Amino acid sequence: MKIAFSKPSLPTEGAIAVGVLEGKVLCATAQRLDDETKAGLTRAVETSRFEGKKGQTLMILAPAGLSVSRVLLVGLGKAKDVDAQAAQAFGGTAVAQVLTSGETDLSLAIDAIPGSTLALGEFAANAAFGALLRSYRFDKYMTKQKKEDKPSVKKLAVMTAEAADAKSAFAKLEKIATGVFLTRDVVSEPANIIHPESLAAIAEGLKDLGVEVEVLGEKQMRKLGMGALLGVGQGSERESKLVVMRWQGSNDKNAAPVAFIGKGVTFDSGGISIKPSGGMEDMKWDMAGAGAVIGAMAAMAGRKAKVNAVGVVGLVENMPSGTAQRPGDVVTSMSGQTIEVINTDAEGRLVLADALWYTQDRFKPKFMIDLATLTGAIIISLGHEFAGLFASDDKLADRIAAAGKSVGEQLWRLPMGEAYDKQIKSDIADMKNVGGREGGSITAAQFLKRFTNDVDWAHLDIAGMAWSKKDTAITPKGATAFGVRLLDRLVADYYEDKAGK
Q1: Measured between alpha carbons, how far is 145 from 137 in angstroms, rounded to an integer?
Q2: Phi and psi angles of residue 208, each rounded to the nearest 5 degrees, phi first
Q3: Sign of the alpha-carbon torsion through 239, 209, 399, 92
Q4: Radius of gyration of the chain measured on its C-alpha atoms
Q5: CA 76 to CA 74: how far, in whole Å?
Q6: Which of 96, 157, 238, 268 could hold 107 in an S-S bridge, CB 3.0 to 4.6 Å?
Q7: What separation in angstroms does the CA of 34 have from each of 26, 44, 335?
């Protein structure tokens, strides 16, 4: 879908989407269309339940007096609430309604909203961003798709009085969308396509953006003493990998980097502690944390973020076999700490243990943030509305939460403490990898904290957010790429050159 920005006008073909504020208040272009149709829009609204509430839509087909084939009314909600997220929802909702309609051209009319603090150019740019994000499809394996199910919209015209400003603002957002799409792609792929070696190769593609990429194999990791990570992958025929990505965007190349670490279990059978067969196919996306880190690095490099950033992803496949790790085994991590493996399905924390230690030991970062589909317990706690946030530093936690809220990737901070830490005490090793059913997400975080070496650290448990079974305004059902926009916003707001400290 090609996106272009232009000055306001009434299109002569295709579909046009216009905004309506809560209370059935037509925005300027909608009012103009209403005049052209001799109150046709007003009559349609009055004979429907459409009130202009956020997310509501009303389609008017073949409106008399207009050359366009359809007019889509999209609810914006209250004027004071029209912010960047609302603008994205406007664009995404419009595309979702028209994408497979048979229309090839869609115009978005962006009008000034009295009472909104969002600049018109930013409104237009974010509407285009939302439209782009919602247009995503993962249908490469569908060979017999019906014509009516295929996307038809080829061109999106975003009409605004501040077209130049909108185009400039959209340029950076488009780079973020590229990172989001990369993450959605790799998370959506089946496990016979995405495995440690192939995902590492995709990460190496970031070299084209100026990212330095290293791929460590099992021989190198064994030399480093990464017994925790290697233990997870030893049951698979596929070799485990550790991928290190570096973006040196700061003016000071020696400045300490920010660091992001991702869990990359490309398929999680549970190992010897095998999962039930029902729903196991979903475990292709147990690498969504790694996918988000790769996508975030692509987004930052794409928009030339003025920051030094490191992304480290541990890539393994957790399979049962004669060589697989057993419950009761003891492994030695890179940190030298020993771990009793009680449950081989609590494998992500073992991967992250070595990845975290490696990151702090080699790069001495300002902070570390890991992302992982770590526990089912977080879904029981928070459902599919919030990701779990755990942190050793309040300031870092507050900044992450603020960044997440600003992009619509919500987080809820959970407690940590010595009482939870005691739950992972082992009788024969320094710790065990599970602490029981009670507070399962928290004890998992306590486990990870032991490998941070007192570096400021946060853990995002995204198990409930990495995959969606329903569409949202800007995300079709499937892989969400949760974390890409959050991490990019965190860096943009607080850690780029000349940003706050």
Answers
A1: 13
A2: -65, -20
A3: negative
A4: 24
A5: 6
A6: 157
A7: 9, 10, 68
Q: What is the phi-psi region of residue 127: left when phi exceeds 0, alpha when psi lies from -120 to 50, beta otherwise?
A: alpha
> From the annotation, which residues make up the binding site?
263, 268, 286, 345, 347
CATH architecture designation of domain 2-159: 3-Layer(aba) Sandwich (3.40)
Distance CA(132)–CA(136), nearest Å, equals 7
Residue ranges of domains in the chain: 2-159, 177-495
Q: Active-site residues: which are they?
A: 275, 349
The band of 500, judged by pLDDT with boundaries at 50, 70 and 90, is: very low
Q: Please, what is the Cα angle at 343 between 386 and 190, to 5 degrees? A: 60
First to last CA, the chain: 39
Fold of 177-495: Aminopeptidase (3.40.630)
Q: What is the pLDDT of residue 409?
A: 98
Structure tokens at 436: 């029981």
User: Which residue in this structure is represented by tokens 């004027």?
Assistant: 79
Residue at token pair 């046709």: 40
Q: pLDDT per residue over 107-124, tens digit each?
A: 999 999 999 999 999 999
What does the angle CA 394 – CA 435 – CA 487 come to, to the nearest 5 degrees?
Answer: 35
Structure tokens at 196: 């440690």
pLDDT of residue 498: 81
How high is the pLDDT of residue 88? Answer: 98
Output the six-digit token pair for 263.
């869990």
